[in-house]
# Entry
Amino acid sequence: MLYEMVAIAEEIRPGLQETLHSAVGHDFVHGASLEVDRYWLESFLARVAGRPNTLFSDPFRCWLSRHDPPKWDLDYRPDDWGEYCDRSGYGRYDNESPEPLLIRVFLDQRSVLGAGGTHSLLTNEPEWPQFYEGYPIIYEIAPPAVAASIRCLIHWPWSDAADLSPNLPAVSVGRVDPATAGTMTGALRDRTTGKLFGVGCAHVLGVDGTQVFCPGPYEGRAVRSIGQTRWHSIAQLRQESGPCNFESAPQAGRLDAALVEIDPTWADASDLSQPAAEELRSVKHMEPYNLVQINGKESGFVRAQIAGVGIWKRIWVPDFGTGFGGERCFGGVFGVMGLNGDLRPIGQGGDSGAWIIDFDGCSRRWNGIVIGVLGHRTVACFADYLLREAQSQFPHLGLT
# Structure
């Protein structure tokens, strides 16, 4: 379903940005995501599976992960959908029950709750749009999104490792000037040359030709060179006081990714040569609330679930060798949240580049990589898009 949601997000982005600019202002909104109501999704999938609503128990999630995605019917409504929407506070759109997809708008905490108390903007909240083209809008105040190579003090390790995937490393990597430290979980191999390319974030590993070290020099420990960055792709910088405009480069916001050609003499190269995943999960086969796991070098193993797709996100990225730091405009990304929703953070600085995989006990499937932190959620780019774009330069790349 995420594939259909990405298409809808691309379609509604320009109009939604203009609507929110008029009502709220660009500086107060640092992103929006498109999500599916969980109750609607459970009801729809239970009907497809021919079984009662099981509240997404683990067996039901496992069943979903092993079957091809159903043909989605966004016109479907549970029998009590209208009553449910009233109870949930969605309201009615032109006296009709709203769409099952919802828009979550992230308000910039610094602007709305800055020095001096609550901004007068909040007094105008009743005038803000509550729907856009039938999709209910939810507003959430969140700290600014930051690239996850910046350290912070949040740490929520997950200790129950019963169903974690084996062989999921969390190697610390980075560049020297400016010093960075992020996570490298897995690698791709060129099937014609046999060369191994570690996968990480561009804001950690730098532009093409950058020397990469392990551990990341930001940690201040003894390091050794492990290779050079050979390819990178990252979203465009946001213009000062302007919106995230994707018209000039509509695909540029999808990735914060880089490939490092691994030096075969590096002693720990064998860790990355072992497959972190056997398969790539395409966007067409990714669904909201799918169970995933992440192993960041700072947060350790974390179980999580896919939240939704980014309509757009402003993420602050430091200078990583380009000479410019600032907010970059991302679209076509996805969010990851904790198993119980947004109750606590699941990522922190240093986790950038960590692979997001799902594991059914037999096969590991690569979903994407962590690129940033937004409140209690992490922001990620799709592995599908990453591999396709990297193959434009290295046509024979594939999972190890």
